[in-house]
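To illustrate the input format used throughout this study, we show a single complete record. The first block contains the structure-token representation of the backbone; no residue identities are included at this stage. The design step must infer an amino acid for every position from geometry alone.
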């Protein structure tokens, strides 16, 4: 049995700016499987913190009862640097102030870090090949440069995640239903997760663009397997982004149920024993992320929505009307914003003032959208 709280000090780049990073290691130290969970990578997204707050005592109780078959590493608030990003009374937290880069973008391309030369080390034992890659990843992670607070933070995170069998990144949207992002190769497992979590949609893309945290972990294995097709190298990591509804959806009762459902999923995976917890349903099957429309505003205006979350719409239906705020039609004209695909509305804007290019809604359809090329995510 083991329940360990780890506290690391991220030394500040300037005087008085040091930050504390806290996380937990739970379960048998000799477990053959590892689960990595983090929340608030986008520090302005807090529902995941509440979910993991409720998951921790469940894991601790299971550890005491000897019911954990895996080692759990839990970062309830993975980005303390972003949590301190408060300006003019408003918490920001989505972007690195130093670089301007989204905290969930530009995570390292692991193949570039350790992929070269790995093929020569592979044999006919798939498990041994996996151990070889993970040893290289851990050695690389432990040797990363740690000059700035940002460097120290990322090194701590990737060192804990690099050898995990499950990597779950807990986020939320603006005003949204619960949904999942993952890769097509994990569609079956993600269906199980969707059934347990009650996800309204699961969107799949092998490379959505931008180097998001959840995608970098399977990417190296898929590339190595393709380049070394004559050697056994199964995909050893289940990785995803779990979007726990919208930014305002941080509530004890709701997120406690989310924790129970996540626990139930882990039980079904054989990672936790004991009396079943959570509530399993039957969720919609996953779809290609390129079939999801990101409806955007053509110019600034005030949104008047014509649909609710969860509504099913047809192509050409009015999703919202954009009230003009300047020009000849200011405060009089309303421009209909029409769905470019048929599907389910899973997100809207909380604040109704938008500017040119702002994302107004996500509509999850089933037909590929020709314009969905390149980066498939909003920033």
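Output of the design step:
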């Amino acid at each position: 049995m083991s329940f360990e709280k780890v506290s690391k000090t991220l030394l500040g780049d300037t005087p008085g700016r040091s930050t504390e990073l806290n996380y937990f290691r739970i379960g048998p130290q000799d477990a053959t499987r590892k689960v990595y969970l983090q929340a608030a990578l986008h520090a302005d997204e807090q529902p995941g913190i509440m979910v993991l707050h409720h998951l921790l005592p469940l894991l601790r109780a299971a550890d005491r009862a000897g019911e954990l078959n895996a080692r759990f590493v839990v970062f309830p608030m993975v980005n303390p640097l972003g949590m301190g990003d408060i300006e003019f009374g408003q918490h920001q937290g989505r972007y690195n102030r130093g670089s301007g880069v989204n905290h969930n973008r530009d995570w390292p391309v692991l193949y570039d870090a350790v992929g070269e030369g790995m093929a020569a080390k592979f044999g006919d034992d798939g498990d041994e090949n996996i151990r070889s890659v993970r040893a290289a990843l851990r050695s690389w992670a432990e040797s990363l440069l740690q000059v700035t607070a940002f460097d120290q933070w990322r090194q701590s995170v990737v060192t804990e995640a690099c050898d995990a069998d499950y990597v779950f990144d807990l986020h939320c949207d603006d005003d949204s239903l619960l949904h999942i992002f993952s890769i097509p190769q994990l569609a079956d497992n993600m269906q199980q997760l969707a059934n347990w979590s009650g996800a309204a949609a699961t969107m799949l893309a092998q490379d959505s663009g931008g180097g998001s945290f959840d995608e970098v972990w399977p990417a190296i294995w898929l590339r190595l397997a393709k380049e070394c097709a004559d050697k056994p190298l199964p995909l050893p990591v289940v990785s995803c982004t779990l979007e726990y509804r919208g930014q305002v959806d941080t509530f004890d009762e709701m997120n406690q149920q989310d924790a129970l459902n996540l626990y139930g999923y882990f039980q079904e995976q054989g990672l936790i024993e004991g009396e079943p917890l959570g509530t399993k349903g039957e969720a919609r099957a996953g779809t290609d992320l390129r079939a999801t429309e990101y409806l955007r505003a053509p110019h600034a205006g005030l949104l008047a929505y014509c649909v609710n979350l969860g509504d099913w719409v047809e192509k050409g239906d009015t999703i919202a009307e954009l009230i003009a705020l300047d020009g000849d039609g200011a405060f009089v004209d309303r421009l209909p914003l029409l769905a470019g695909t048929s599907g389910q509305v899973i997100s809207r804007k909380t604040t109704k003032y938008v500017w040119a290019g702002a994302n107004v809604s996500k509509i999850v359809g089933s037909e590929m959208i020709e314009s969905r090329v390149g980066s498939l995510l909003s920033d």
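Structural context for interpreting the output: The two ends are 41 Å apart (CA to CA). The CA atoms of residues 303 and 351 lie 9 Å apart.
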